[in-house]
Amino acid sequence: MAGIAFSGKRFLLTTFGCQMNQADAQRIRGILSEIGFVETQKETEADLILFNTCSVREHAEQRLISRVQALTALKRKRGNLLVGIAGCMAQNHQSSLFSMTPLVDLVFGPNDLESLPELLQNASRGQTAGKFLQKGSFNGEEADGIILERPFSAFVNIIRGCTNFCSYCIVPSVRGPEVSRPPEEILKFVDALARRDVVEVTLLGQNVNAYGRDLGLEEGFVSLLESLQKLEKLRWIRFLTSHPRDFTFPAIDRISRLSKVCEQFHLPVQAGSDRILGLMNRGYDRSGYLKLVAQFRSAIPLATISTDIICGFPSETETEFEETLQLVREVRFESAYMYYFSPRPGTRAAGLLGQLPEETRKHRLARLIETQNQIAWEESQKLVGKTLEVLVERTSDRTPGHLLGKTRAGRTVDFAGQNTFSGSIQKVRIDRARSWTLSGTLLDTLPVYHLNNPREA
Ligand code: SAM
Ligand code: SF4
Ligand code: F3S
């Protein structure tokens, strides 16, 4: 019935935040298509404008409110236009979003995607509609119920929520407690994706290393990777995010034997000072983190390591900040997501003494970025002359006749080639490197798998 109600209507979906939201976007697209919607990229022709939002920092929330308010004129002009807020901000502010942004018709949290048809029915009858379940589940997440942005690459949620309560972080309160998806369901899901030519999956969780604990599994995450390795048509497996506290040495050893696991490991360190790490409630210290990095590099020589860092945490001294800079120089991260501390109401860190002025936080961030950028550039130069496997993603908007693809380490590579290669894995020689993007020459036009990979299982 809902399908008839919305048949031919158009939706515009904009996703902010992390890959968890991108995975939810795959499901939102699937649900909207099941009830008759088609996607548009144009605001002016949309019947439904949906924002899939992030709450992790205050700025992200402020920008979203401005984006919604900018729709006032359009909404006045097109009386039937529906505007919705999904994702973490919806869960964080719930019904109060209706008064914060009065033109919004529906608001629903990340654990309520399946309610979307019902909410849309209510909203289209002129009622404001909201839903905010606290705990996540995997009901309704079937492979044929998601629509992928790129047909050969999928995000796969394996664990929802977070129970870590890092003192600065709002995620546990908006995404609810950890809930793992049973391994047999994940295998069935990924197998179905691989059968429809998905070559790459990125397994998602706020702490993938905690996968399976709530199901009573031990080292459930690595066992899951080992099972996925056996799926014949699947080529590449990535995962995010690993919590340094929970990655064990035996787990790294077992992963080192899995040829399909890409050599890209995101290990958020957050800070280089033991006192700050303690205040953050991260559960590891500087030396434990450095040992973990060393273990990765010795078990997997091609491993590239990226990280997240927060600077200007409450009471962080100049010397403690320099410990973070020193750690960055020591580890030489391939890349880093760097932020200055943003106090989130309701978190422990927001109430700590010694909050630093924004100017200090911003200034430290600028110094951190400068340090890391130089390292990233130097590390990139080491790739020049190497031949890498590249999963071809799309044509370049900037250079006609060029393609963009991604290496196993997650680097973007630009090279000349035909669009028909999209979704295939090719050999590319790297000719030039900037801090993040690489340019190269296509060496072979045949499907190539696991080239130069010493870790064949
Ligand atoms: N689960 C992941 C982990 O434990 O590293 C991170 C998920 S969080 C959504 C992404 C990143 O946002 C964090 O690693 C942290 O660096 C940053 N972040 C979270 N809360 C923040 C805050 N209040 N201020 C600044 N950055 C923050
Ligand atoms: Fe936030 Fe920590 Fe959970 Fe990551 S592990 S989502 S930083 S509380
Ligand atoms: Fe943001 Fe929610 Fe992810 S707060 S970073 S979208 S889990």
Would you write up a description of this structure?
The protein is of the alpha/beta class and 457 residues long. It has 4 domains: 10-131, Methylthiotransferase, N-terminal domain (Rossmann fold, 3-Layer(aba) Sandwich); 146-235 and 242-262, Transcription Regulator spoIIAA (2-Layer Sandwich), CATH 3.30.750; 263-295 and 304-379, Transcription Regulator spoIIAA; 387-442, Beta Barrel (OB fold (Dihydrolipoamide Acetyltransferase, E2P)), CATH 2.40.50. Helix content is 33%, strand content 21%. The chain has 15 helices and 19 strands. The protein has helices at residues 2-6, 19-34, 58-69, 72-77, 88-93, 96-100, 116-124, 171-175, 183-195, 220-229, 249-255, 274-280, 286-299, 318-331, 358-381, and strands at residues 10-15, 38-39, 48-53, 82-87, 106-108, 129-131, 153-157, 159-160, 179-180, 200-204, 236-240, 264-266, 304-311, 335-340, 387-395, 402-407, 412-416, 425-433, 438-444. A 6-stranded parallel β-sheet has the order 2-1-3-4-5-6, with helices on both faces. β5, α7 and β6 (129-131) form a beta-alpha-beta unit. α9 runs parallel beside α10 (220-229) and α14 runs parallel beside α15. The chain starts with a helix and ends in a 13-residue tail after the last strand. The model is unreliable at 448-457 (pLDDT under 50). The chain binds S-adenosylmethionine (SAM), iron/sulfur cluster (SF4) and FE3-S4 cluster (F3S). Residues 162, 164-166, 169, 171-172, 206-207, 243 line the site of iron/sulfur cluster.
Report the sheet with the most strands, covering strand number, pairing sense and barrel closure.
6 strands, parallel
Number of helices: 15
Beta fraction: 15-25%
CATH superfamily heading of the largest domain: Methylthiotransferase, N-terminal domain
Please report the total strand number as a whole number.
Answer: 19
Mean pLDDT: 93
**Domains counted in the coordinates: how many?**
4
- Assign an overall shape: globular
CATH architectural type of the largest domain: 3-Layer(aba) Sandwich
> How helix-rich are the residues, as a percent range?
25-40%
Point out poorly predicted stretches. Answer: 448-457
Radius of gyration: 22 Å
- Tell me the structural class: alpha/beta
The strand order across the widest sheet is 2-1-3-4-5-6
Distance between the termini: 50 Å
> What is the class of the largest domain in the CATH system?
Alpha Beta
CATH names the topology of the largest domain as: Rossmann fold
Oligomer: single chain
